[in-house]
């Protein structure tokens, strides 16, 4: 905030308080020719107003609010750029990245500043850190059978993963279903944990410039036929000739490659939709799905617990 606007806010705030104090003082004195307790010169609907003083409890409460207001403005931020005598603030609101947030936390701690968010984070780490550390010592397969760990994992999932995969983890168009045992990069505990830690970058190339619309349609029909769907035999046969460009990732049999994150095209599970129009759209324009990396946000121990929860969704024996 610039010095001008800081000064403007300070003057406006203090002036408002001063005017309110004057107004209260003015209403506490009798400036009329009518003595206190006597009738005023007007009435309405049979009701006569008396010249009574303000109630004591009301005025005392008002004075207490003024005193508290000045104390608050002196101790806490609120007057422009003035940070208050306590040097307190709710959070490091000017940070723009996780790295900046960590640096700001360290600097505030070294300077003895009181940052409420930082205090809450440290308190949570002290209280819950040992619990997550104990969970992290257990293999994911065993942790997936621990009801307490699954409850914690579900909460973490709802907070961080449900925005894309849904609260029921069944995903949506462009976001994988985590409950059906169909995995792009593998559903083993180590694969799930790697996905959470490092993230994934999907890369389905666009073939709109390489193939004509007719060839795209033929190829889409062939891809649809791989999952057992009945399609026009001539279109399927024509599309099969161009499937060679797809087999580099999806394999000659179309069963995919988990090392590359290439989907199995034979199981009738479609990430972006399995209609001919959707398959054509994928072939023509490509797909570039992104799974963000969580290692710098959640840390290893929490990722371990979420991995166990995700693993449990398709391994509930």
TrEMBL record:
<dbReference type="InterPro" id="IPR032858">
    <property type="entry name" value="CcoP_N"/>
</dbReference>
<feature type="binding site" description="covalent">
    <location>
        <position position="246"/>
    </location>
    <ligand>
        <name>heme c 2</name>
    </ligand>
</feature>
<dbReference type="GO" id="GO:0005886">
    <property type="term" value="C:plasma membrane"/>
</dbReference>
<comment type="pathway">
    <text>Energy metabolism; oxidative phosphorylation.</text>
</comment>
<protein>
    <recommendedName>
        <fullName>Cbb3-type cytochrome c oxidase subunit</fullName>
    </recommendedName>
</protein>
<feature type="binding site" description="axial binding residue">
    <location>
        <position position="291"/>
    </location>
    <ligand>
        <name>heme c 1</name>
    </ligand>
</feature>
<feature type="binding site" description="covalent">
    <location>
        <position position="249"/>
    </location>
    <ligand>
        <name>heme c 2</name>
    </ligand>
</feature>
<dbReference type="GO" id="GO:0009055">
    <property type="term" value="F:electron transfer activity"/>
</dbReference>
<keyword id="KW-0479">Metal-binding</keyword>
<dbReference type="GO" id="GO:0006119">
    <property type="term" value="P:oxidative phosphorylation"/>
</dbReference>
<keyword id="KW-1133">Transmembrane helix</keyword>
<dbReference type="GO" id="GO:1902600">
    <property type="term" value="P:proton transmembrane transport"/>
</dbReference>
<dbReference type="Pfam" id="PF14715">
    <property type="entry name" value="FixP_N"/>
</dbReference>
<keyword id="KW-0408">Iron</keyword>
<feature type="transmembrane region" description="Helical">
    <location>
        <begin position="6"/>
        <end position="24"/>
    </location>
</feature>
<dbReference type="InterPro" id="IPR050597">
    <property type="entry name" value="Cytochrome_c_Oxidase_Subunit"/>
</dbReference>
<dbReference type="InterPro" id="IPR036909">
    <property type="entry name" value="Cyt_c-like_dom_sf"/>
</dbReference>
<dbReference type="GO" id="GO:0020037">
    <property type="term" value="F:heme binding"/>
</dbReference>
<dbReference type="InterPro" id="IPR009056">
    <property type="entry name" value="Cyt_c-like_dom"/>
</dbReference>
<keyword id="KW-0813">Transport</keyword>
<dbReference type="Pfam" id="PF13442">
    <property type="entry name" value="Cytochrome_CBB3"/>
</dbReference>
<feature type="binding site" description="axial binding residue">
    <location>
        <position position="204"/>
    </location>
    <ligand>
        <name>heme c 2</name>
    </ligand>
</feature>
<comment type="function">
    <text>C-type cytochrome. Part of the cbb3-type cytochrome c oxidase complex.</text>
</comment>
<feature type="transmembrane region" description="Helical">
    <location>
        <begin position="60"/>
        <end position="79"/>
    </location>
</feature>
<dbReference type="GO" id="GO:0005506">
    <property type="term" value="F:iron ion binding"/>
</dbReference>
<keyword id="KW-0406">Ion transport</keyword>
<feature type="domain" description="Cytochrome c">
    <location>
        <begin position="148"/>
        <end position="227"/>
    </location>
</feature>
<dbReference type="GO" id="GO:0016491">
    <property type="term" value="F:oxidoreductase activity"/>
</dbReference>
<comment type="similarity">
    <text>Belongs to the CcoP / FixP family.</text>
</comment>
<keyword id="KW-0375">Hydrogen ion transport</keyword>
<keyword id="KW-0472">Membrane</keyword>
<feature type="binding site" description="axial binding residue">
    <location>
        <position position="165"/>
    </location>
    <ligand>
        <name>heme c 1</name>
    </ligand>
</feature>
<keyword id="KW-0560">Oxidoreductase</keyword>
<keyword id="KW-0997">Cell inner membrane</keyword>
<feature type="binding site" description="axial binding residue">
    <location>
        <position position="250"/>
    </location>
    <ligand>
        <name>heme c 2</name>
    </ligand>
</feature>
<keyword id="KW-0679">Respiratory chain</keyword>
<feature type="binding site" description="covalent">
    <location>
        <position position="161"/>
    </location>
    <ligand>
        <name>heme c 1</name>
    </ligand>
</feature>
<comment type="subunit">
    <text>Component of the cbb3-type cytochrome c oxidase.</text>
</comment>
<keyword id="KW-0349">Heme</keyword>
<keyword id="KW-1003">Cell membrane</keyword>
<dbReference type="InterPro" id="IPR038414">
    <property type="entry name" value="CcoP_N_sf"/>
</dbReference>
<keyword id="KW-0677">Repeat</keyword>
């Amino acid at each position: 905030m610039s010095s001008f606007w800081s000064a403007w806010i300070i003057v406006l705030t203090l002036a408002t308080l001063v005017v309110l104090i004057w107004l209260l003082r003015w209403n506490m004195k009798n400036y009329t020719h009518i003595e206190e307790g006597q009738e005023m010169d007007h009435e309405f609907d049979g009701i006569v107003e008396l010249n009574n003083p303000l109630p004591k409890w009301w005025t005392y409460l008002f004075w207490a609010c003024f005193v508290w207001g000045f104390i608050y403005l002196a101790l806490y931020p609120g007057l422009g750029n003035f940070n208050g005598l306590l040097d307190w603030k709710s959070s490091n609101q000017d940070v723009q990245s996780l790295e900046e947030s960590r640096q700001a936390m360290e600097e505030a701690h070294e300077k003895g500043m009181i940052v409420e968010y930082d205090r809450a984070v440290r308190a949570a780490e002290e209280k819950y850190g040992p619990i997550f550390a104990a969970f992290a010592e257990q293999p994911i397969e065993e942790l997936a059978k621990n009801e307490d760990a699954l409850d914690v994992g579900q909460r973490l999932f709802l907070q961080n993963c449900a925005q894309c995969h849904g609260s029921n983890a069944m995903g949506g168009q462009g976001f994988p279903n985590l409950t059906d045992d169909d995995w792009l990069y593998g559903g083993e505990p180590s694969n799930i944990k790697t996905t959470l830690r490092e993230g994934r970058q999907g890369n389905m190339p666009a073939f709109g410039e390489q193939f004509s619309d007719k060839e795209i349609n033929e190829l889409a029909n062939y891809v649809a036929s791989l999952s057992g769907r009945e399609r026009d035999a001539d279109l399927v046969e024509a599309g099969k000739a161009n499937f060679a460009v797809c087999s580099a990732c999806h394999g000659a049999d179309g069963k995919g490659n988990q090392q590359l994150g290439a989907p199995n095209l034979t199981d009738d599970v479609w990430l972006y939709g399995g209609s001919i129009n959707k398959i054509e759209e994928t072939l023509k324009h490509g797909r570039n799905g992104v799974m963000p990396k969580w290692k710098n946000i959640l840390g290893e121990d929490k990722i371990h617990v979420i991995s166990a929860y995700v693993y449990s969704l398709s391994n509930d024996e």
